[in-house]
Here is the input.
Amino acid sequence: MSSHQGRVRVRAASSALMGWGFVSPALLLLLAMNLFPLIFNVYLSFTNADLSGGAVKMVGTHNYTVLFSEARYANALTLTALFVLVSVSVELVLGFVLAMAMRDHIPGKPIILTLLLIPMMLCPVVLSLFWNLILNGNYGVLNQLLAFLHLPQPQWLTDDDLKLVSILLVDVWMWTPFMMLISLAGLNAIPKYIYEAAEIDRAGRWMVFRTITLPMCAPLLGLAVLLRATDALKQFDLVMAITGPNDASTQTLSARIYQVVFRDYKVGLGSAYGVVILVAVIAVATIFVRYIDNLSRRQGKVERSVP
Amino acid sequence: MKLLRAVVVTCFFLMAILPLVWLALTSVKTYEDTISAHAKFIPWTGAGSLGQSDAESARFAPTLDAYRNLSKRVAGTPNNFYYYLENSIIIGVLSTLAAVCLGTICAYGFSRFRIPGSKDWLFFILSTRFLPPLAVVVPVLVMYRWFSLENTHLGLILLYTSFNLSLAVWLMKGFVDEIPRAFEEAALVDGYSRLRTFVRIIVPEASTGMAVTGVFCLISSWNEFGFAMTLNNYEAKTVPVYFAGLQGNIEGVPWPQIAAGMMLFVAPIVLFTVLVRRHLLRGVTFGTIKQ
Here is the structure.
């Protein structure tokens, strides 16, 4: 009996070892390419490192003193927050409206759905470079369309007040279908019998929407918002393509890092900026990870409760 | 209500698709037609004049010159479009293969073995996806200088492999979890080793999942800009960086060539999107929503 138990224990131990054998190559690569640079970045932010490869000296919190005194820092922080807030909420509302419209049968639905999803799969920087041609104030096709409709034709790419709007426009164009896709999954998961019960109770349309549709979609909408927010937080591609990295009216944190490191060659300061953006990303990512954990646990419960 | 829904869907559909249609039209125009103050949107192959006064006509004579010119160098760039496309293909394909292989092996480990703290490890893997390229590019650059990986294909391949691992592991774990354990238990009873079971039983069963995962990894490597721009702005430059560099070209932005190149660059991704359309939801949510 005891020898049997011993054998079981040995097998369990060797099986755990084999498990590590399967997972360790991926984990080692991640530790080397993702975790190490992250820690190294914190170290560099306390040094005077530059890209020319001179001797590296510790400078204490000097980089952070410079960073917090820069007007461009507050500017980048505000712009990034504004970008995340506006892009995610506009995409959420539009995507949800579109999902509501796509909810029931419409002719050609699978084809329409697939075509709608194409922009978000394509290269953001390539597409936004092309948007420069569409948005051009003088010969762009958008302003020609606005002229045809007798609407004002603003200078999308050169007016300081509109540059961020243009970037938001392209982002909303790309990512609204993403919100629609996830909203649609949420809507489709609502069981029909709940609506039938509401009908028997003679609940009004708005009442049904407020007490059934929206709350039952909320978990998936939350997931979509967190996914988009972590992406929007690192916004770099569209800024580079539409205004370049050093435009005060569109300089997000990522664009600021590019400017500081690759144009001004201040690696230490750039690393300090990196630490700031990492803190923000880790905060959002932590919420995200907890959220997914809860969501999958709840989904598991639902699946188990279905006979 | 039905009418309202039709209007909403039509509006969104046109907004999503018209910029891409404009891209396609731009790629068959001449340079003058792309920057015309009178938008040209009707390709007209009829003989003779384009009608009205030619300059104000909405018609234009389509031409494939822009596609032919892709093999020529644009002023101020050392190579033609296909050189950068080749870089994109090499880096995209190799990093995808590596990520899918490592990801499948890792997902199998997490799916079938009791690994202490496995949930924490999985969430660690997921969280690496959120790392902003620009926040870690400085240390990566310094590391790459130690190992002379800057401006090489291998440098970007390693980086893209590790950044795609989160997606590959999470998607593959979903797919491997769906394979019944009875298959491999039968094989193990027959005396197959774990490794042989993995290769002979799991890999064939998971092949659809691996293909879908591969498509998503390829797309994210193909479209990546932050790392490619900062680590690789020379020899192994990829297509997005090449296009970004053409902005503000001394001879004017060569719109028809750019549009033609963009068409060739996005065409495979459009095709892949259509192929994996049933798995899109799963792919964009790291496998947390399965349909």
Observations:
- Chain B has two domains: 2-70, 71-284.
